[in-house]
Amino acid sequence: MPLSRRGRGPRGGSSRVTNTSLPWAPAHLPRRAVRGAPPSSHAQHLTRQRHSSEQVPKGPETQADFRSGKWLQERAGGGTGDSRQAPRAEMDSRHRICSWEEVVIPYASDSDSENVDLQQSNLEDIKKSPSSHEFTGSCISSLPLGSLTARSRHPSHEDSLSEDTIEKLIKSIQEFFNGELKSEHKKLTFLRSLSSLSQTLPDDETAESFIHSHIADIVHIIYMVVEEEPLHSLFSPVRQEVFVTITDLSYRGVHLLFGSKGRDDLFGLIIKSIITLPSEKTLTRLQEILPSVSYNSECLYRQTFQMFSEMLQSLVVKDPHLANFDIIFKHLEPWLQSVKDRERERAAASMARVLKCLYRHLTVRFPLRFQTLGRLVAQMALLCGDPLKEVAEEAAEGMHYLLHITLRLKYITEDKKNHQSLRRAMKKCQELLKCYSIKCFYSCPFRIGQIFEVFLDSNELCQFVLTILNGLKNLNHQCTQQSAGELLISFVKNAKSRFEKVPEIMGVICAQLAMISEPEVRQQVITTVSLFISMPKYTDTVISHLLCHPVPYNRDLAEVWRTLKVEPASTTLILSRLLRKLQKCHDVPTQGKMAFAAVSATDALYEVFMGNELPEATFELFPQLLMTLLIQIHHSIDLTMSDVAIPAGLYAKQEMSSKVTPLCFAIQATKTLLFRTSCLQEFSIMEKDNGWTLLAGKDCHLQGVSLLANALLERNHVLAQRILYLLVPLLNRGNDKHKLTSAGFFVELLQSPVARRLPSIYSVDRLKDWLLHGNNLFKILALRGLCYLIRHQKMREDIKSLMPRFLDLLCETEEKIVLLAIQILLQLVRTMDFCTLSAMMTKLFSLFGDTRPDVHCLSMTLFGASMKSVKHTDKKGVENQVLDSLVPLLLYSQDENGAVAEESRRVLTICAQFLKWKLPQEVYRKDPWYTSPSEAETVCKFFGKKCKGKVNILAQTLMFSKDAKVPIRRAAALFTGLLSKYLDRSELQTKGTKWIEDDLRHLLHDPEPSVHIITSQALFQIQKVGAEPDPEQTLGGWRKLLGCLST
């Protein structure tokens, strides 16, 4: 049953049906306007003439000829009527195709005038003001681009189809939905019937309803038809008929290429089928191989692209929102980048024809959905510098119309508030265009970029840059890479801070850099990175992106860091931001994994130092750089990359070497920093004294820090002072490792003369706080700092108030703390009062015989210094302490440690001077007592007599018989045996010798034979002395006996 129709009057459109007995009739091709003879060469086949899409002007129009470099006066051939309204000539379709010379599209719908009115209304607000009028009159009209006014024509209706014919056409088309189109005849019949039916739209409701309800079927069949066309399908009219049918439907508002995935696929297939056709030479050879083909291959080749171009143009004639144009560009863009010259040439020619048509019929409505302007400008600009002359010429023509379109769009869509901005942009555009000839301008991508940059918004700028970066992958054409590099730098310099998607741009740069081998182009890309990173608005963004790559950096990223070229004012900014990235990681607690940013920032600093492109900033920030890297070393000790919080997927495409550790990056960066800042002497000291090994050690890191600080203080005191002032406000920041490394360096710098200028709150007071810290390392650093500061007289009184604390530290188990405390007390001993001296001597006496040789030795030194510091009036108060020290000092003079033995003899001399004794020379002999018993007996005799009744030296000596050291036990046993000869016999008889013998007998089991032998001799001597009567008592008895006898 026929569908109802609206409108019974004549139907518009050129009839494509002739009388026939079939329910459908083959459609006739419309009569085309022809002009001139066929072009004589292949280079002219894709020219603006064969793809002319402008309406025939009433008078001559001046346009730029991008092929000859001249201005030409063009006139379109044919009449001014609609060329699509004439019936097809009755002849075989194959011959009909070869008769076409040029296609003109004068078509415009009934609503075109309304579109023009809308454009005018959009401009009314702007044109009302005098300044706006001046803007429109002087700015746009003065550009050498031709008129911006879109001309339009209305089709006339010559023939109409009867209702019966329409129904037959519908029925025949339906039959093809269910059947197969195997033969060329059936395919042509289907396409021409569909095209003829489209001529009834939109007047006939039945035809309109049928077509719209069967769009999916139509698209599917056409897809199959195109897909089945072989490479030599130019010898068949099917492909050309597909273009004509789609064009007819497009003019009637039915789009087979937009609106769904199926239609989009069809569009892509059509473009691919035409762009990838063999070259004309190949087709000529095919014609020779197929002698049955009677076509002129040159004519076929030209006319196929003519109809394809017409089809594309029909899609944008009525495209008020520019959505169709975006889709066309999306499908053509890959072919504009093709590595094959013929494909790139065809795509460029097609794009130029579309742009020209769009320019002629630009009827914009809001909302405007032109989303690809930046990409389009970039792509066409790159093609203007294409090595193939034909491609460059086609692109130049397209760019000519694109600039024209861009000016109009920006003028219409520009916000009124930004009117002055647009005015300035237009003025700049004029100034730039005046500097170049038209042909020179459009053949230089760099100049094109200068012009368009002023009109692109931030999103379009990003599109432009990303497209240019994509052009850098063109490895086949070096000049294209160079053009892309020049465009890139030009745009980034001129656009400055108008970019928004900088991370995306940086991502593409990092990905593309590996594909660029040309040194000059690589440097241009890196210069682009330098431009972005030097802008404060983007510095953090660029650095953050560059840091999000695997470490160690690959060759390309390393080159970026090493060859950054920025203004001196920006170099400090870049390094300081890198430092801040690293320092933030040091502010968090040390528990958990290390942040990946810390490792990547360290590696980045290493690469920057290696390149030595930022020498001024490196010297300026040297204190911060050095301290931050030392702190990073401390954090990295004993860590592997498994202890780093690596972002997921970062190392998905590569394996991580087990040799790579956070520590190696930090050490490398520190070494490079010293070398690049000419700290060569410091570097040498670190190498000679194993400084790098010390820095990397868990327990000796602070020793390495101390070594470097002292080297810097000795060789470069200016830098050392700068670091000192830097550290003053930073010592209490960050976590414990941060504080420890900073404190270690700070303390060593207190040796500098400028340290005395520091206020007490930043020096002594801070060290006082560290003395109370629970971490012994801070106590050690505090004591070292006080050792240095106590040399300054004005600070000594403040430090002296810590005396009780220093005395308490003598009881610490940490050797370094005790040694440093003694060193400080040595410097304060002359200022101590009697009570302090007495208390200190008591504590020092307990350290005699300490298993730590340095503590033992230094405690005796301080004991001797204390005796010297006792005033004459107070000597009686410490005499007993001095007497008690004699035996220990005497025995330790036999210590196996030469320093301890020597110090014992020295302090023993001080004690003798204190007691006003004169020691026998045998005391100072370095040979052991057992080698010269007679000399030992002399020493024992002296001390036995001097100490008689003052101190029980025998009891003191026996205490050392249990000493851990063999020489001391041996000396104690020998001294006991010799001393027994000079003991008070009455006391021995009263107390007995059993307690002495008991203490000595345990030495008989000593594993050292010499101790055993000497102990045996001592026991014998003790027993002998105990058995013998006192000589004084015997003499007294004889005297009494003689007295009795005499009486």
UniProtKB/TrEMBL annotation:
Ranges for the region named Disordered are 1-93
* MROH2B-like HEAT-repeats domain boundaries: 167-317
Q: Which UniProt keywords apply?
A: Repeat
- Gene from which this protein is expressed: MROH8
Cited InterPro entries: ARM-like, ARM-type_fold, HEAT_Maestro, HEAT_MROH2B-like, Maestro-like_HEAT, Maestro_heat-like_prot
Q: Which GO terms describe its cellular component?
A: cytoplasm
Which PANTHER family does the entry link to? MAESTRO HEAT-LIKE REPEAT FAMILY MEMBER 8, MAESTRO-RELATED HEAT DOMAIN-CONTAINING
Task: Give every Maestro-like HEAT-repeats domain span.
Answer: 343-575
Q: Which Pfam families match?
A: HEAT_Maestro, HEAT_Maestro_2, HEAT_MROH2B_C
Maestro/Maestro-like HEAT-repeats domain span: 764-1022
Q: What is this protein called?
A: Protein MROH8
